[in-house]
């Protein structure tokens, strides 16, 4: 099995900016799907007012600009002109359980958010299809992409769903992009029974890397 003790010395290799750059026509104008976007590109746009799930739009915008400038930060957006109405972000996991268990071929889908006014238009699906089900963009086939989902960040109020119903929705939604649930003893995920850890194993990931990821999830590797 690969030695992961020196994994911190391995550089994270980003795909080129705008590896994805597509235009779709909508009733409200031309929708642009692009990414990963640069800090300058993000700084020249604004987040719509509805993108407030994690923090106020202006603060979330600044956080995304900073993330895009990080060595391991990737941001993909759906926008109308200079207004971002949906985005997906990735970075190396940085919260306690995973920060010390991270390895070169692991990354995290940190956030996905769509303005509620646009949720019926499938923007999240459009973004994820371009990122994960795109024959012209196979970057994530070289990674295990984990996605930790916490009940406190779910939009239970607007959807009217219970935590368990929302959990099921999330599992089914991400299954379309080859994410599956993984058992874990991560204490933050175990804080609430509805919290879930999902992960997508890229086609180029070895069995030893899968075994290592499993041992990290279960706390048998330290």
Secondary structure elements and pairings:
Elements: E1 20-26, E2 29-35, H1 39-43, E3 46-47, H2 57-68, E4 74-80, E5 83-91, H3 96-99, E6 106-114, H4 123-132, E7 144-149, H5 156-159, H6 163-175, E8 179-181, E9 196-201, H7 207-218
Parallel strand pairs: 3-5, 6-7
Antiparallel strand pairs: 1-2, 2-4, 4-5, 5-6, 7-9, 8-9
Folded structure, characterized:
There is one protein chain. Strands 1, 2, 3, 4, 5, 6, 7, 8 and 9 form a nine-stranded mixed sheet that branches. With 222 residues, this protein is α+β, with helices and mostly antiparallel strands. It is 27% helix and 25% strand. The protein has a single domain (7-218), classed as Gcn5-related N-acetyltransferase (GNAT) (Aminopeptidase). It is globular, with a radius of gyration of 17 Å. It has helices at residues 39-43, 57-68, 96-99, 123-132, 156-159, 163-175, 207-218; strands spanning 20-26, 29-35, 46-47, 74-80, 83-91, 106-114, 144-149, 179-181, 196-201. Mean pLDDT is 91; it is low at 1-10. The two termini are 15 Å apart.
């Amino acid at each position: 099995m690969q030695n992961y003790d020196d994994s911190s010395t391995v550089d994270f290799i980003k795909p080129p900016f705008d590896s994805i750059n597509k235009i779709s026509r909508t009733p409200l104008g031309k929708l642009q799907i692009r990414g990963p976007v640069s800090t300058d590109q993000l700084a020249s746009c604004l987040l719509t007012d509805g993108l407030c799930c994690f923090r106020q739009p202006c603060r979330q915008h600044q956080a995304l600009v900073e993330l895009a400038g990080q060595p391991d930060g990737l941001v993909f957006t759906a926008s109308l002109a200079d207004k971002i109405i949906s985005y997906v972000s990735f970075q190396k996991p940085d919260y306690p359980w995973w920060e010390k268990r991270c390895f070169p071929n692991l990354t995290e889908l940190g956030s996905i958010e769509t303005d509620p006014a646009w949720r019926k238009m499938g923007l999240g699906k459009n973004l994820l299809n371009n990122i994960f089900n795109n024959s012209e963009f196979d970057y994530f086939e070289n990674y295990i992409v984990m996605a930790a989902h916490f009940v406190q960040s779910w939009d239970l109020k607007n959807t009217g769903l219970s935590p368990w119903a929302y959990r099921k929705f999330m599992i089914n939604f991400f299954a379309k992009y080859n994410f599956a649930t993984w058992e874990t003893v991560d204490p933050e995920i175990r804080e609430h029974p509805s919290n879930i850890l999902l992960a997508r194993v890229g086609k180029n990931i070895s069995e030893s890397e899968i075994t290592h990821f499993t041992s990290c999830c279960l706390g048998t590797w330290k």
